[in-house]
Write a structure and sequence with these properties.
CATH architecture of the largest domain: Orthogonal Bundle
Helix content: 25-40%
Domain Disease resistance protein winged helix: 438-508
Oligomer: single chain
CATH topology of the largest domain: Arc Repressor Mutant, subunit A
Family: Belongs to the disease resistance NB-LRR family.
Number of strands: 28
Largest sheet: 16 strands, parallel
CATH class of the largest domain: Mainly Alpha
CATH superfamily of the largest domain: Winged helix-like DNA-binding domain superfamily/Winged helix DNA-binding domain
Protein name: Disease resistance protein
Number of helices: 29
Distance between the termini: 50 Å
Pfam families: LRR_14, NB-ARC, Rx_N, WHD_DRP
Organism: Dioscorea zingiberensis
Length: 914
């Protein structure tokens, strides 16, 4: 970790020397000398940082001192740049040009003199620290004597494949538990009336035993899904907020929108949930319940009716399980046995399918696994670590010896294994892992979200010809490979992949981030202990709102001068308090105000010249101050989801650093001049077409994702010409203005001679399409396709079924206005998800033999004229999930378990939600 900090300081020094060479002649030698000193420290740390971490107190002290001097160097450089920028933009009244130049020169000399003194002091400290390394014999800890070996080359990943093929995590030893729990859930019908009551079955055990994984496995069992008319999985977690949990229940069980929830008081929300669940046989999974109070809040919305409803609860606390239901026995999850532990370790360390461990490694491997005490989390994390090592006796033995294993009990046994896995991370991954501490427990984290933050923080280093985003994707997957984070599918209807971090691993990232002054996550609003030189502050949840108002910062505060990142999530604060809080934060790189509800930004936001990331989603900000254009280092701007978000014309002055512009119904004022462009912009989301397009779009040569709104026929041809010049574009959303046509050529490889055809992979088209291109002219690169209000008269499945790479297809709201569709034989060879929603004319649908052989998820909604489920559905054995909603009662009757005419078509599907 210290090596990453020093690396960033070296990079900053190099950039400063290059950019300000004219102004820095007097201190140039000092800057070069300090950079050289830090480079030597960096080289030493790269070889020995991890072994130093495992060494004695002298070594730890040395690393801490190196980290602090690197932080100081960063502070000096960033402060100098800030002051110079402020001095250059400051107007000096109506003085003569000669006097103005004199004042400016004097001011610059003062700043330069101050910089020289500060650099000299830091240089002196750096030299003393370097001398101490030899003086106290710290070299002996590193080098070849290190008992840890690190592989620092990143793995090569098929990025598209990991996004599209999310498989269930490997679990061993749970089969017998699943059978027992399934029986407890579904046998009530065949028992006496006593068993018809709403029973709470509690899975109890220490952290890391796999309680959550077991609960999910039980609920996805094909015998369980059809038994309940309503199911919901709700994460409760240690930080319990009653309103938040109720909203999760409403969203998961009722699909209630955020807008609707905001309109309801807490009591009204409870009433709505109770009313919805009355008369339904429901199954609720309440994951990670810590306190009896949490259960008491939740139970009030779960009707107690004699219909066999069930609650499956996971908890570490026996008292919680007993309190929830004294009549039901607790299901106490036990540690894995020796054989099961070895099997799980080999699946992680060797290969998921071919897990045969070489015989010469078996004895060392089993010795390592024995230290895990049968805890699945410890085993998979250790296996993930070993999977990054060479399969040699020497390398495995180094891992075994790299920690003083202690015979500890319970969760204490996991801690040294998690610590070991962190210290074995290559230097470039450590800050990326620690950054997960900014997220609340159990949150679903999108790849785009974390990657953009990593890049803004400077954690991602350039590599060959790849973009920083592509390098960061590899970082993310390496953390998955090491089992420090896990892949989940938050919402299969979207087919999008999200990530989660286990709460024990999250605890590790939070505690380690605090120790290293990397990040601080206050436990409550009264906490004052923000350590000196803390670089980042994360405030999560409504109870942290008062934290902003309670901070009495001054411009001389060490905390305010060091702060680089402020992340506030889901906390209502007064605009004046937030503006005051930000006023003295001069050196911010990341500012995320998501869900704070503030109404405006400081008018002088432009002074934050180091800002790389500005997140404003779920705020009440209507317009941006004109000074936003001065944020020339800004990489990511996320606008609130308000109507008519206006970007000032100064946005064109932001130049080459801006990479992602996201929002909702964004309009851009003006148009760029001849010498203005945004050449590195990769994402432009939900932007209204306007005059800017004709002179601006074709200059966005790095654009990968583009979402266009309100496109008229007038702009269609110029747009197609511009799109043909964007070689990197692979994701396009085109929404036609009312009464206008969406060009079918967006789906075609056939273009006019002067126009290059598009190689789009993800396409969303909203508006009338006269006719799809012929199948032999369709763009074969398309993997995701959404059609909405297309009003196609010819069956689209006949043509689309021939797209060999199509994996996600959504037909929404009159996308097709005919009465009959057919999936032809062998059609849709790669399709994984199919959504048919609002096809109000559809009456008949047929699936021919060997069509959709890889389909996993199907959603059928509001197709009220459809006579029945398609013949041939029973042949799709790959189908894992079927959701049917907003269909007529007579149609629903056809799906009744064992009785409905269509039950035989769907009985093989593990998850059926009606």
């Amino acid at each position: 970790m210290a090596e990453s900090i020093v690396s960033l300081a070296v990079t900053k020094l190099g950039a400063l020397i290059a950019q300000e060479i004219v102004y820095l002649r007097e201190v140039g030698d000092q800057l070069h000398s300090l950079r050289d000193e830090l480079q030597w420290m960096q080289a030493f740390l790269k070889d020995a940082d991890d072994s130093i971490k495992g060494g004695n107190e002298r070594a730890k002290l040395w690393v801490n001192q190196v980290r602090d001097v690197a932080y100081d160097a960063q502070d000096i450089i960033d402060t100098y740049i800030y002051k110079i920028h402020q001095q250059r933009r400051r107007p000096i009244g109506h003085l003569s040009s000669t006097l103005t130049k004199c004042i400016t020169c004097t001011s610059q000399l003062t700043i330069l003199h101050e910089l020289g003194n500060q650099i000299a002091n830091v240089k002196k400290r750096a030299e003393e620290i370097s001398a101490n390394k030899s003086k106290y014999g710290i070299e002996s800890v590193g080098g070849t004597s290190s008992n840890i070996s690190i592989i620092t080359t990143t793995m090569s990943f098929n990025r598209k494949q990991y996004q599209l093929d999310v498989e269930e995590a490997v679990v061993v030893g749970f089969d017998k538990h699943v059978k027992t729990l399934v029986k407890l859930l579904i046998t009530a019908e065949n028992q006496g009336s006593h068993d018809q009551r709403r029973a709470v079955i509690s899975i109890v055990g220490m952290g890391g035993l796999g309680k959550s994984t077991l609960a999910k496995k039980v609920c996805s069992n094909p015998d369980v899904k059809p038994h309940f008319t309503c199911q919901a999985l709700v994460y409760v977690s240690q930080v319990f907020r009653a309103r938040e949990i109720l909203e999760r229940i409403a969203k998961c069980a009722m699909a209630m929108s955020e807008e609707k929830m905001k309109e309801l008081s807490q009591e009204k929300l409870k009433e709505k949930i109770c009313e919805y669940l009355k008369g339904k046989r429901y199954l609720f999974v309440l994951d990670d319940v810590w306190t009896r109070d949490a259960w008491d809040v939740i139970k009030d919305v779960l009707p107690e009716e004699m219909n066999g409803s069930r609650v499956l609860l996971t908890t570490r606390n026996v008292e919680v399980g007993v309190h929830a239901d004294r009549q039901s026995p607790l299901f106490k999850l036990q540690n894995l046995g020796e054989d099961e532990s070895w099997d799980l370790f080999c699946k992680k360390a060797i290969h998921p399918t071919n897990s045969n461990c070489p015989s010469y490694l078996e004895s060392i491997g089993k010795e390592m696994v024995a230290k895990c005490g049968g805890l699945p989390l410890a085993i998979v994390v250790l296996g993930g670590l070993v999977s990054r090592k060479e399969q040699t006796v020497e390398e495995w033995r180094k891992v075994l010896k790299s920690l003083k294993w202690q015979l500890q009990e319970g969760e204490d046994r996991i801690t040294p294994i998690l610590d070991l896995s962190y210290h074995h991370l290559p230097y470039y991954l450590k800050p990326c892992f620690l950054y997960f501490a900014v997220y609340p427990e159990d949150l679903f984290i999108s790849a785009d979200s974390i990657i953009r933050l990593w890049i803004a923080e400077g954690f991602v280093q350039p590599r060959d010809e790849e973009t920083l985003e592509e390098v960061a994707e590899d970082y993310l997957q390496e953390l998955v490979q090491r089992s420090l984070i896990k892949v989940v599918e938050k919402n299969s209807i979207g087919g999008w992949v999200f990530y989660q971090i286990h709460d024990l691993i999250l605890d590790l990232s939070i505690s380690q981030a605090k120790v290293e002054n990397f990040l601080h996550v206050p436990k409550n609003s009264e906490e004052e202990n923000i350590l000196h030189k803390t670089r980042r502050l994360a405030l999560n949840g409504q109870e942290m709102s008062s934290y902003i108002a309670a901070r009495k910062y001054s411009t001389n505060s060490p905390t305010s001068s060091n702060m680089r990142t402020i992340i506030c999530t889901d906390m209502e604060v007064r605009t004046s308090e937030m503006v005051g809080f930000l006023h003295i934060m001069k050196l911010l790189r990341v500012l995320n105000l998501r869900g704070t509800g503030i109404k405006k930004l400081p008018s002088d936001i432009g002074k934050l010249i180091h800002l790389r990331y500005l997140g404003l989603n779920r705020t009440e900000i209507k317009t941006l101050p004109s000074s936003i254009a001065e944020l020339t280092n800004l990489q990511t701007l996320i606008m609130p989801k308000n109507e008519n978000n206006v970007l000032p014309c100064g946005i064109w002055k932001m130049g080459s650093n801006i990479r992602h512009l996201l929002g909702h119904m964004i309009s851009i004022k003006g148009a760029p001049s001849v010498d203005q462009s945004l050449p590195n912009l990769q994402t432009l989301s939900s932007v209204e077409v306007g005059p800017w397009l004709l002179s601006g779009l074709e200059k966005m040569t790095s654009l990968r994702k583009l979402s266009l709104l309100d496109v008229t026929d007038t702009y269609a041809e110029p747009l197609l010409d511009c799109l043909g010049k964007l070689d990197n574009l692979n994701h396009l959303s085109w929404s036609a203005s009312l009464g206008n046509i969406v060009p079918s050529s967006l789906l075609s490889t056939s273009q006019s001679p002067h126009r290059r055809h598009l190689q789009l992979q993800e396409v969303s088209l909203f508006g009338r399409i006269e006719r799809l291109p012929e199948s032999n002219h369709m763009n074969a690169c398309i993997t995701r396709l959404t059609l909405r209000e297309s009003r196609l008269e010819e069956d689209p499945l006949v043509t689309l079924g021939k797209l060999g790479n199509l994996q996600f297809l959504r037909l929404h709201f009159t996308a097709f206005v005919g009465e009959e569709m057919v999936c032809l034989e062998r059609g849709f060879p790669q399709l994984k998800l199919l959504v048919l929603d609002g096809l109000h004319s559809l009456k008949r649908w047929n699936i021919e033999d060997q069509a959709m052989p890889k389909l996993r998820h199907m959603f059928l909604r509001d197709c009220y004229k459809l006579v029945m489920l398609p013949d041939g559905l029973e042949r799709i054995t790959s189908l894992q999930e079927l959701t049917v909603s907003f269909m007529p009662p007579w149609f629903m009757q056809r799906l009744r378990v064992d009785e409905g005419e269509d039950w035989g078509k769907i009985r093989h599907i593990p998850s059926v939600t009606i």
